[in-house]
Amino acid sequence: MKNIFIISGMVFLYGCTSSKMNQQNNLTAFDWQGHRGARGLVPENTIPAMYKAIDLGAVTLEMDAVITADKQVLLSHEPFFNHEITTKPDGTIVTKEEEKQLNIYTMHYAATQRYDIGLRGNPRFPQQQKMAAYKPLLLDVIEAADQYALSKNKPLPFYNIETKSQPATDNKYHPSPKAFVDLLVAVIKHKKIEDRVTIQSFDIRTLQYLHQQYPSISTVLLIEDYNKKSLTEQLQELGFTPTAYSPHHSLVNEELVNACKLKGMKLVPWTVNDLATMKKLRALGVDGIISDYPNLFYFP
Ligand code: G3P
Ligand code: CA
């Protein structure tokens, strides 16, 4: 009897390690990424959205990071409270005129927790479940998502974290790239997820600083659909070859797939919300897809 327990324990351990190794080496897993967790189904950039993405088979949890006045790394797409989804502490809704005054970089974390971002739903994502929801700390998201995956006997998730910054709003909506990245990396190191994280950005300054200061952390270059520069120009401007190249999905074609392979970069387009486009992109040979709808992910 004792032997049976020892053998089943070894099989269980091997199973966990093996599936994690497959993901870490990315040998077998197609990199399905839940955008803002699962924005199409659950309030974006929240812990419940990450749970939903894990339930539906996401390999990677995509999310956006901003910084509070007391230097906490918080999940939020905007560095303020978006008028489309926010309810104020007094129960009234945030108007378009006032949203930018609710600047998270000037608010303490405790104050941000008084604003709800889930009760109203999202008018652009009608399937999104309405629920009380708050902007969480990155630290709590990692803690909760890892625990959740373990409790469901799923592989530990990867994290694709975007630095929401741009040169025009340094020290207004966020700190300088150096300060931003240092705060973000401190959380990553504290949670010991260096080998399960990529840092993505449209702001090449954050990627350049990461590459120079924390070369072991994987970087992802984000590209907008209106960016008309060639791949060569974009990489020259960046100054190094990132781990992954992540353009708007409309920019992906066979030539780009081949060029990324030649450079040794993963190609992971965003944000693909219909099955037909997902299938077209997979047939072209992309390495992963970012979607608001993890319920559309398919295996293999
Ligand atoms: O992962 C890339 C994608 O998230 C970039 O777009 O505006 O949704 O953060 P956005
Ligand atoms: Ca993002």
Characterization of this structure:
This protein is α/β, with parallel strands linked by helices and 300 residues long. Helices cover 34% and strands 14% of the residues. Strands 1, 2, 3, 4, 5, 6, 7, 8 and 9 form a nine-stranded mixed β-sheet that branches. Helix 2 (47-55) runs parallel beside helix 4 and helix 5 (177-190) packs across helix 6. It is globular. 38% of the residues are buried. The structure holds SN-glycerol-3-phosphate and calcium ion.
Please state the oligomeric state of the protein chains shown.
Answer: single chain
Number of domains: 1
Query: What spatial form do the alpha-carbon principal axes imply?
Result: globular
Query: What CATH architecture do you see?
Result: Alpha-Beta Barrel
**And the CATH topology?**
TIM Barrel
Question: Which structural class best describes the helix and strand composition?
Answer: alpha/beta
Radius of gyration over C-alpha positions, nearest whole angstrom = 19 Å
Overall pLDDT score:
93
Small molecules bound in the structure, each named once: SN-glycerol-3-phosphate, calcium ion
* Percentage of residues in helical conformation: 25-40%
CATH class: Alpha Beta
Q: Distance between the terminal alpha carbons, to the nearest Å?
A: 37 Å
The helix-strand sequence is HEHEEHHEHEHEHEHEHE
Number of strands: 9
The fraction of residues assigned to DSSP E strands is: 5-15%
The main β sheet shows up as: 9 strands, mixed
Number of separate helices: 9
CATH-defined superfamily: Phosphatidylinositol (PI) phosphodiesterase
Unreliable spans are 1-27
